[in-house]
Write a structure and sequence with these properties.
mainly alpha, about 0% strand
Length: about 500
């Protein structure tokens, strides 16, 4: 199988990213109003051509990303003795160059997306409208963007909010609303500047992810971890292109885990995870694994008590943010609003709907029961993983990543980019080049095709995702990245002692 050089991967991916952006100018999630003559809907011909170009660009990006991973993997295999001395030296040099050029590659792949219109989702218009609602004195936890009227900030953005979300209260925490409020305040709520302001937030989130992943990943696995977490096309098109706040949640969660688990600063780590929770609530799962690490570090009954303290700090941060934002604690009652919207990627929603149609006139009660059973099953899986982390059979960072993936798989609402919650954490654990890492890479590549640049989920998107999934699994099986067999998933790293933690804090 042919393998590009790192420079070839960089330019191929940059060309793909540019094609996605150019296609997006014709077929992206363009605003209904307020495009300022830059982002305007086009005729059918231009829209179709733009969509085809964007899909072709995405394919180039995916191929370049996969090939880059193969270069990194070949270097690890050679370094581990999987080839002769000469081949090992050559592969090692190639992998070293790939590692050095990883940051440059990320910049080249991100750069074309910076001035793109919103891609693959209209959620950013909801973010802008919700920030405007706070400034205009509306209760974002009681009403949707439709409440904004002519003359109010965010009125143009509200016109472009997706149909399901027009009357839906915000499911996000007050910290994210403060961010959205700041962007709207600085841009006057004008659509184009506000979108670009939210893209700056997305770039900061990307930088935070890279920093935290490199800090969490074991030595020798950091480049591969960044490859799976940050260079990932699913993250690039949905966090940088689509501006989803999941990137900010993931970045803060990883940063909090890094500070608490690897640096021994559990109070600061708990506070940062509290901020992540106030972006989106699934980040709260990080407190379970941080608590286990803190409890084991101290040991005994005192350790168990101390393990609760990061959660207490996070709760205090959440309460303080709720008061400081002026939005109150309404976010507590809107955490289930997303579950009312059916998404085809949710196994429990699909199964519940199918059973409901078979056994009842109204399928919704049956669907609701199946969704709750799915969440209970996810809870059981998380508890099992947490127990294995407690017994030091699983690394706590890897345990958190696997738990987030289980939560997504069994949630009542699943979007393609939700897979990133667990993927970036699994990558940060260093588990990027085993069977699980390859499976996640294939899954991310496939899910990138599910949503069209316009934000719709057409049938052909699912078909393309299925084809990419099948080809990716075949490819991963046929080409095990230069090594026969599977690289073992890294086991639990030593937990620093209390004294070691204190030494880390004064460095």
């Amino acid at each position: 199988m042919w393998v590009f050089s790192t420079a070839g991967c960089r330019w191929l991916g940059a060309a793909g990213s540019l094609a996605v952006t150019v296609g997006g100018w014709a077929a992206g999630t363009l605003p209904v109003r307020g495009g300022a003559g830059l982002w305007q809907p086009h005729g059918t011909g231009a829209t179709v051509a733009g969509s085809v170009l964007a899909y072709l660009g995405l394919t180039l990006l995916v191929v370049a990303w996969w090939q880059y991973g193969r270069v990194l993997r070949a270097g690890r295999a050679a370094a581990g003795g999987g080839a002769g001395p000469g081949a090992g030296a050559r592969a090692g040099v190639g992998a070293a160059r790939a590692g050095v050029g990883l940051g440059a590659t990320l910049c080249w792949w991100v750069a074309p997306l910076l001035l793109a219109p919103p891609l693959y989702s209209a959620d950013v218009y909801s973010y802008i409208a919700q920030g405007a609602m706070v400034l205009e004195g509306h209760d974002v936890y009681a009403a949707g963007p439709a409440v904004l009227g002519p003359g109010e900030l965010g009125y143009d953005a509200a016109a472009s909010v997706g149909g399901h979300w027009t009357d839906t209260p915000a499911p996000y925490g007050p910290v994210f609303l403060l961010v959205a409020q700041a962007v709207v305040g600085l841009t006057g709520g004008a659509v184009v500047p506000a979108v670009l302001g939210m893209r700056l937030v997305a770039l900061l989130a990307l930088a935070l992810i890279v920093w935290a992943v490199r800090g969490l990943a074991p030595e020798g696995r950091r480049d591969g971890a960044v490859w799976l977490a940050a260079l990932n096309p699913l993250l690039l098109v949905h966090v940088v292109g689509g501006l989803h706040n999941d990137g900010l949640m993931a970045g803060l969660l990883l940063a909090g885990v890094l500070l608490a688990v690897r640096r021994g600063r559990w109070a600061v780590g708990g506070a940062v995870i509290g901020l992540a929770m106030m972006i989106k609530s699934p980040a709260a799962l990080g407190l379970l694994f941080v608590g286990i690490v803190v409890a084991r570090r101290r040991g005994g009954a005192a350790g168990l008590a101390k393990g609760l303290l990061p959660g207490a700090v996070a709760v205090a941060v959440a309460a303080g943010a709720s008061v400081a934002a002026g939005t109150g604690f309404g976010w507590l009652r809107t955490q289930n609003v997303a579950a009312t919207i059916h998404t085809a990627l949710s196994v429990t929603s699909d199964l519940g709907l199918g059973l409901g149609l078979l056994v009842a006139d109204d399928p919704e009660p049956v669907k609701g029961v199946v969704q709750k059973l799915g969440l209970l099953a996810a809870g059981a899986i998380v508890a099992t993983i947490a127990w294995r982390v407690w017994k030091e059979r699983v690394d706590p960072v890897l345990g958190l990543g696997l738990s987030l993936l289980a939560l997504v798989a069994l949630s009542p609402m699943v979007q393609p980019w939700y897979v990133l919650w667990g993927t970036v954490v699994v990558a940060a654990a260093g588990a990027w080049d085993g069977r699980g890492g390859r499976l996640l890479a294939v899954l991310c590549a496939a899910l990138a095709y599910e949503t069209a640049p316009s934000g719709h989920t057409p049938a052909y998107g699912f078909a393309l995702a299925g084809v990419v999934l099948a080809v990716g699994l075949w490819w991963a099986r046929r080409e095990p990245w230069g090594e026969a067999g599977t690289v073992a998933v890294p086991g639990p790293r030593p937990v620093p002692s209390e004294a070691g933690a204190r030494r880390d804090q004064v460095r």
